[in-house]
TrEMBL record:
Organism, scientific name: Homalodisca liturata
Domain of life, per lineage: Eukaryota
Protein's name according to its UniProt entry: AAA+ ATPase domain-containing protein
Length: 152
């Protein structure tokens, strides 16, 4: 991840907003919902540095946090700061050791169900793991999608 973090701007040839998180290092980064909330907070700060990073109506409901994340990554496609000439800014989210994330009792489908299978064109998510997609806590659709060559 160090190489990706330091070199991704030269690979893409433009400014990249980067989010780097390490799973399982702190209690908040050990649970999938908490890690997702941290990522959402950081995305809010990237989009609006002077605004509050948590919405007033924020909830700990997994569906709320998942929708919040989806909304934020779509906003990077629409209104990101410091846009390149094409009007879009590139976002790269890097998550180390996703296999270390613990599910919550409220995870109805799968612990990693919040990982999108389709992203806006200028948003990339890179996750590292010691496990194959078959062992990770993914939905069946995610498991099949993440096996495809364009996901590597």
């Amino acid at each position: 991840l160090t190489t990706i973090y330091t070199e991704c701007e030269s690979w893409f040839g433009r400014k990249v907003m980067k989010v780097l998180r390490f799973s399982g290092i702190t209690p908040r980064s050990s649970y999938n919902l908490e890690l997702l909330r941290i990522i959402c907070e950081q995305l809010c700060l990237l989009l609006q540095p002077s605004a509050h990073c948590v919405p007033q109506d924020a909830s700990f409901d997994p569906l709320y946090v998942n929708n919040w994340f989806q909304t934020l990554i779509r906003r990077f496609d629409e209104e990101s700061p410091d846009r390149d000439p094409s009007g879009r800014h590139l976002l790269v989210i890097m998550i180390d050791d996703i296999h270390r994330l613990n599910p919550l009792d409220s995870d109805i489908v799968a612990a990693l169900s919040w990982l999108p299978i389709n992203l806006p064109r200028n948003v990339h998510i890179i996750g590292t793991t010691h496990s194959s997609p078959d062992i990770l806590k993914l939905t069946p659709v995610q498991r099949e999608r993440f096996k495809l060559p364009d996901c590597y």
